[in-house]
Structure formats: C-alpha cells, structure tokens
Design a protein that fits this description.
Blueprint: H1 3-18, H2 28-35, H3 39-45, H4 49-67, H5 76-93, H6 95-102, H7 111-131, H8 139-162, H9 170-188, H10 194-198
Length: 202
C-alpha cells in the first residue's frame, strides 16, 4: 500500500469512528484497531493524534464543498435545493465530525478547520450568486446570503442531534428561508429587484 493510500486508510478509520462518538473521544488505539494496523505504523504516517483529527475533519469540509456542486441545469431554486441535499448527505454521513467542526468551543476546532469551514460558506454564497447571475452583489445582499449559510449550519446541527424534522423536507424548507430573507432585503434596499427574491419562489 502506498504512503498516501495508508494515510487515507487511517483517515477513513477515524471518520468511521466519528460516526459513533465525538472526535475528541477517539484514541489512537481505537483508530489502529479499526484500521488493523500497529501503533508504530500509525506514527509513521501521522506525528500525532491531533494531526490525524485535523486531516479527517478536512476531509469532511472537502465533502461539503463537493456537496455544494449543485445542478448544471435547472432553475435557481432547483439547483440550490440539490446543493442543500448534498450538504445534508455529507453532514449526515460524517455526523460527529460535522458537529465537531461547528460546535462552539470544540477542542478539535483549529484555525485550519475554521478556514476550511469558511471555504464551505464562501462556496455556498458563490453558488447562489452564480444561480442568480449576479456579478456585483450589494453589501446587503452579501450579508443576506452569509446569514443564510448560518441558518443552514444551525438547522443541520439541530437536525443531526434531534432528527425531529423529516429529512426529505429539509432542503425545501431551507430554500424557503432564503426566499424570505431575500424578500426582506428587497424591502430595505430599493436597488434590489423583485426578481431576486422571485428566483427562489415556487
């Protein structure tokens, strides 16, 4: 097995464990047992447990960015709903890792993982602007879109822990939140056309 393949195998083992417990509760012994390797081999590929934790969580953020790919065709609403479904899928697959990335005060969160999460947020904003063909958004429109990404994150965190809302209704509900937020923005900024809000209406 190549060096990169072995690293990927250890990262996969860690992410599997993150599905059943918080990352800070997963030990080196847990990971080597899941990957069926020795502790000395683990330290050949990672200098510390912390390094592996960060690499594993980075894998989650890469998955989130990929989940925001959206659809190449369709209305802005259809494209955004597809992107939100992609986010839900990745967040659900890496539940504990996703919670660790966003949870306030997480011992796993670092400046590196914070930057990775910012990348996901920026990609979400870019997706919406692209869908609406907006090349020069106003400060208020940008603020609206960034606030919506916070709504999505908060909703996913609650859903992952409670699952009180049916999964199949999440994407439509979250896109409706954006529609309402854009409507409020249009009311406060005369230069924002009604078509901006209407683009995500049913």
């Amino acid at each position: 097995m190549s060096r990169q393949a072995r690293r990927d195998d250890l990262i996969s083992a860690a992410l599997e464990l993150f599905g059943s417990r918080a990352p800070e509760l997963v030990t080196v012994d847990d990971i080597v047992a899941r990957a069926e390797v020795s502790r000395p081999l683990f330290y050949r590929y990672f200098s510390s447990l912390r390094e592996l934790q960060v690499e594993a969580l980075r894998t989650v953020t890469v998955g989130l960015v990929d989940g925001l790919a959206g659809l190449e065709e369709g209305s802005p609403r259809e494209r955004l709903r597809a992107a939100v479904r992609g986010l839900v899928d990745v967040a659900d697959h890496y539940r504990a890792g996703y919670v660790a990335l966003l949870r306030s005060g997480s011992v796993i969160a670092t400046s590196e993982t914070d930057a990775a999460i910012d990348e996901v947020r920026n990609r979400a904003v870019e997706l919406i602007l692209d869908a609406l063909a907006i090349t020069e958004p106003s400060p208020l429109v940008l603020l609206t879109l960034r606030c919506w990404t916070a709504v999505v994150e908060g909703a996913l965190l609650s859903w992952l822990q409670e699952r009180a809302v049916p999964r199949e209704s999440l994407d439509g509900w979250l896109v409706d939140q954006l529609t309402a937020m854009l409507s409020a923005t249009a009311a406060h900024e005369p230069g924002v056309p009604e078509t901006l809000r209407a683009s995500f209406s049913t």
